[in-house]
Write a structure and sequence with these properties.
Layout lengths: L2 E4 L3 E4 L10 H16 L22 E7 L3 E7 L1 H7 L16 H13 L3 E10 L4 E12 L7 E9 L13 E13 L10 E4 L3
Parallel strand pairs: 2-8
Antiparallel strand pairs: 1-9, 3-4, 3-7, 5-6, 5-8, 6-7
């Protein structure tokens, strides 16, 4: 496969990002994070400060990953809806599941959650066996770590666009993911304006 780079679609402040979201779980997570940051006087919130009881309808769509630079992003929590699409990846390193050509880009985009720190929103297309394709929206936000050996955490909402209107994925296998759009989100510390996604080149 031939690859091409793609700049983020837009750079936006978190407070201005809510109109971008197509799915309620991503919107709910963004709003809850805004409230948490306000309570923390703009500081980067710690993982222990995230209250999932305020995210009832988002919980099945949430993931929590522990990031240790440069090459570890371990799934700690995988919501039930996400499991139904990609399987239970708890305890696995996300980078081990990324095609070799895209691995460096995947590390860069996850590590910048910790390094900057910033957030991002993506629209992706997931491809499954049997020719099934599904559009998905995801939001990734950083959380500070107080845990030895973990540089930071990422909490993500990951939800099908049009969730609840599609047939079951029972018996099919996730084959790949293509990034259709990425928005970088400034949570008060700037963004990495040099970042580019690696995507399949147009045929």
């Amino acid at each position: 496969m031939n690859w091409a780079t793609r700049r983020p679609h837009t750079i936006v402040a978190l407070a201005d990002s809510l109109p971008l979201f197509h799915t309620a779980p991503c919107r709910d997570l963004a709003a809850a994070y805004l409230a948490l940051q306000a309570a923390e006087d703009g500081r980067l919130p710690a993982k222990s400060r995230l209250d999932v009881t305020a995210l009832a309808r988002a919980v099945p769509h949430l993931l929590l990953c522990a990031i240790t630079r440069p090459d570890k992003c371990i799934y700690r929590v995988v919501g039930e809806d996400v499991k139904s699409r990609i399987g239970n990846r708890s305890g696995r390193n996300y980078y081990d599941l990324v095609p070799a050509e895209r691995r460096a880009t995947a590390m860069q985009v996850m590590n910048m959650l910790v390094d900057v720190p910033c957030a991002w929103r993506i629209e992706i297309e997931q491809s499954f066996s049997g020719g099934v394709r599904r559009p998905v929206e995801a939001l990734a936000l950083p959380l500070a770590s107080t845990q030895a050996g973990v540089d930071g955490f990422a909490v993500l909402a990951n939800c099908e666009i049009g969730h609840g209107e599609r047939a079951s994925l029972f018996g099919v296998t996730l084959l790949g993911t293509n990034v259709l759009r990425r928005d970088l989100i400034d949570i008060g510390f700037g963004v990495d304006e040099t970042f580019e996604d690696l995507v399949p080149a147009p045929e």
